[in-house]
Amino acid sequence: MNKLRAVILSFILSVAAIIPAAAEIKMNPLFTDNMVMQQKSDAPVWGKAAPGAKIKVTTSWNKKSYTAEADKDGKWMVKVRTPKAGGPYSMKISENGETPLIINNILIGEVWLCSGQSNMQMPVNGKTWNPVNNHEQELKDAAKHTKIRLLTVERTSSPVPEEDFNAYGDGWTVCSPENIAEFSAAAYFFGREIHLKRGVPVGLIHSSWGGTVIEAWMSKDALAGVKDLGTQAEMVSGWPADKKEREAKSTATLNAWNRLLSTYDDVYVQFDDFKDEKFDDTRWDNMKLPGNIEQKYNNFDGHVLLRKSIEIPASWAGKSITMHMGGVDDKDVTYFNGRKIGENSNWKKKIAYKVPAELVKAGKALIAIRIIDKAGNGGIVGNDQSFYLQGPDGSKISLAGDWKSKKDADYKSMPPRPIIYTEKYWSTVLYNAMIHPLIPYCIKGAIWYQGCANVTRAYQYQDLMRLMIANWRELWGCNFPFYITQLANYTKRQTAPTESTWAELREAQSMAAKVVPNTGIAVTIDIGEANDIHPRNKQEVGRRLALQALNKTYGMNVVCSGPVYEGYEVDGNTIRIRFSSTNKGLVAKGDKLEGFTIAGADHKFHWADAKIVGNCVEVSCKDVPRPLAVRYAWAHNPLGNLYNGAGLPASPFRTDCWQGVTINNTTRY
Questions:
Q1: 146 HSE (CA, 13 A, CB side)
Q2: What are phi and psi of 419, to 5 degrees?
Q3: Are 335 and 280 in contact (CB under 8 A)?
Q4: How much is the pLDDT for 271?
Q5: What pTM value is reported for the model?
Q6: Residue 473 neighbours by CB distance under 10 Å
Q7: What's the CA gap between 349 and 652, in Å, rounded?
Q8: What's the rounded Cα separation, in Å, for the pair 114 and 546?
């Protein structure tokens, strides 16, 4: 019996050996259950199989089959004709007639790519983010919109263009309270508006990463002629293609550099007694905190010492209290009344240091902090509300405001921070990993929310924004619509006319929308927050982006823009500004029109008197008898209350072309 079993087993194995096994078809991660395909298009469908395999794709909406043969690398692609919006449908993909792979619950509708940095990444109610306005109701309402489908590209970088990507979750997901919580809020509210107004399914491909520069989202070819960045892109392309090799190399070089800095720190600390109450800081500088030390000490890397005296109430004496900081970049060592209470080197972590009861005495107390900034920006992050002492009874003492500051160890004589091959800041690395794998998936258009990371290079951004739009369109082979979110107001409100990197970046965005065909801009200058770079009113961001698409892409009769500066005339001591997109007339929200400044030949701007006259604004100032130029809402967080009859705000602008503050900045490295 055992011999018979052995013979049978041997026969089965020999037969199996001569029957070719069906190779598993691997689809690009864009093709999963619950996906949305662009309606009325010849939509590419692609993947990998065995070289030479015969591929057949059959769609349920028209019962048609499309065939292709995998090339020598196993790559194949077909283009399937999609119908008008509808579904659900399915799609079968088979190799050499074997059992097909089936993709179910496909909807046909409108597909939009949503990209940028943290304000695009900010979710509806993410675990590590502040939630959007009215987030609880928004999550509940998401259950109503199952014809909105979501796909988020995993955040990673690469020095070379990748063919595939990883998607968070299982690929495309159906809109639900659970799935929308961690999804891009700006993208979701945009898509929801399109879905409701057009009555069609909407697919949202979300590919963004906080803190990233625009050149990271551009291809090597697009940057070839750009000063500094073209050279950087060429350098990046020579990095190790293998991710593990890049990580190992980065870790080794960074550890060696940190060891060198540690030695330097130990030797060159000048003021180790700065934490003592009797230390004399009367000749030290003043610095506003929270904030970046670069705002005070331009391009400084090293140690900065900080001191502040505060008054402790008698009710706190002899009881443990807590010191809160939003976060620290790169590292802090913090002291209370001369004793160390904590240190932290994770800039994302919100700090809460316990102050022992024996250190808490009624009257004056001294807080001293050593900030260690190794590279890039450094300081205490967060807003005024996140920086405070909390007493045993829950009461708070704000620590925001003026601190005494002093530069200590300066790293200028040290070797610069080494290249970290896995970072997201380098030219091309996000295009390679997070955009290139999506091409040529058929999309209707793209929305973009980025710019904060480029504000110091706003003049350069004028070219980069135009180049990136052209770059993506060329690669997709389609002149798709591209809608830009202009940067919202941020930081403390201006109190005097000023130059502004943020204003120059907004101008660069407006210029791109004006000169590049099939684009538009959603102005958000009125819905930002002074103390939070991530404003919570993402509903209005999404709505204003959708207004651009509804008007320009879908041809609906909706107003999509606030007043737009068109030109000016000088009439004696007055400058008359002309506007288009006034929609039933210009409107000042408030008692009087604000936000206008005016200057003469000395280029010195003064607050101006402004009044609406028809579709114009007349601007003058008694201190400027011969005016030459006007600016409106020209600041990080400007005054400005000019709207049109549709309730949409005017975009910041200037009539002059005088040299700005970012014209000579071309690269962050």
A1: 7
A2: -65, 130
A3: no
A4: 57
A5: 0.84
A6: 18
A7: 35
A8: 12
